[in-house]
Design a protein that fits this description.
The complex is a heterodimer of chains A (258) and B (307).
Chain A lengths: L1 H14 L19 H8 L1 H34 L5 H12 L3 H15 L5 H25 L3 H9 L4 H12 L1 H17 L2 H5 L9 H10 L7 H21 L1 H14 L1
Chain B lengths: L2 H45 L1 E3 L7 E3 L3 H7 L2 H33 L5 H8 L1 H4 L2 H11 L6 H8 L15 H27 L3 H9 L4 H29 L3 H6 L9 H10 L4 H36 L1
Antiparallel strand pairs in B: 1-2
Classes of the chains: A mainly alpha (258), B mainly alpha (307).
Chain lengths: 258, 307
Amino acid sequence: MLASLVPFYWLVNTSLKTGAELSSGSLFPTQPSLQNYVDVLQDGEFLVALRNSVIVGVVTTTLAMVLASFAAYALARLALPRKGLILAAVLSVTTFPVIAIAAPMFKIWSDLGIYDTLLGLIIPKLTFALPMAIFVLTSFFREIPFELEESALIDGASPFQAFYKVILPLAVPGMATTAILVFISVWNEFLLAVTLTSTPSARTVPAAIAFFAGTNEFDQPIGSISAASVIVTLPLLVLVLVFQKRIVAGLTSGAIKG
Amino acid sequence: MTTTTRTRRRSRVDQQQRRTAVWMVSPALVVMFLVAVVPIGYAIWLSLNVYSVRQAGLSQFVGLTNYWNALTSPEWWEAFRQTFFFAIVSVFLEVVLGVAMALLLNMAFRGRGLLRSTLLVPYAVLTVVSAITWQAMFESNLGLVTGLLRALGLPGGEHVWLAEPGYAMAVIIVADVWKTAPFVALLVLAGLQVIPPDVYEAADLDGASRWQTFWRVTLPLLRPAIALAAIFRLLDALRIFDLPYVLTKGANGTETMSMLAYQELREGRLIGPGSALSILTFATVMVVSLVYIRFAGGNIRDVAKEN
């Protein structure tokens, strides 16, 4: 438990130190200051990166949820031929090293003129978010009792009506969990974020932080970097701790039932 | 209603259902096909050419030359070795720690919920942020870890960890284990919770010690969950990119396969050789997962079937 928390504590500790104190290894800041936070929030590039991350995260998650809920419903509850094969194909996408996609994507996007744009980031991130969303949702959908939708079907509803009138309302908690998992993985994704962008205008938070950290090895603004890191971590931390039980369920069911 | 009309009606419903199902599953599959499978095919084509970004339009078919160059270069084999070293050590540590954490969490004690919540803290932290955090922890003068090692008079306190081969890799492994051992713990915990209690009662009646129970009962029953966690982690570890990118930029013996391909692509601006390296990375990951599924696949299929 200590091991989980201490590094994060060290980050917060560093972010609250200023000037001379940063060059001492003290266990807590003697004069805690929010100066680093002020600096970071006044830094235009960080704010742009934050905005980019939010846009990319929200758009990708929304699209992934719509497409994945359709696919998962068909896989979990409808008579679809070759289900096993489809699931295996979907799973195999998760084994693709992103680097193998990065080179052709770089070239295709340059030719299409969407290299270094948010759209150019959203499309490939969606592709890697889909398998995860499909697996987690499929396992949530399977847990809903079949009688409900059978009676809807007998009453003359089409399978699609049964899906959005009966199943979707019941699946709201599972959908929320899946959306959080997808959002976190999109927020965290790094390789596409650095290969498909070249300027701060489309850079997301992980890429911005990495460039921040890498500008000059000997003069790293470690205080600002730590503050920026805390800023992007806290919202996720709150989200994860509030939805703790559901997230554990989502992580394990997606993995095991996949 | 006669049986035939009922069957006919049944099959009509089935047909309608099947049509809806195909229609619903297609958009996701099309997106994945267009953005994952097609680019891989294109990457293979690119890897057979030499193409220069600096001199636009200059493209020449060179066959397998890029592969030959990669496979005869010491850089590739060094990256291959580093990646496997990283993957094996970190996945091993993650599984051992993960199982230990899961066993602990499965015991009834006060504050268990709190402990389970703290497990999720590393999960909420961006990998890039965790890299920066561990960089600060191992900072040679001010880092908490190096400071502690010095204070306790243990070896390692005097090292500039990220600037020395071996030590740099150790920091990357620590950062990875910290971030993902909890994930393994959660999967194993889920596996533990489905073990029926009567198995333990039987072991208890037979007079098995706790240690024996663990080795002979718990561990074998956990094997599917462990096998699954291990393959997930292994596939991720073989593709590792972000930790070495932030921590060392691939210096000091931490260049992984993905890093090498990236550097060739991005910094060298060489799409052909870079693509060859990324296809080699892809092939390596595929081969490892196929071999793994061949040997541990039965376990994973069992888990999939149970659910």
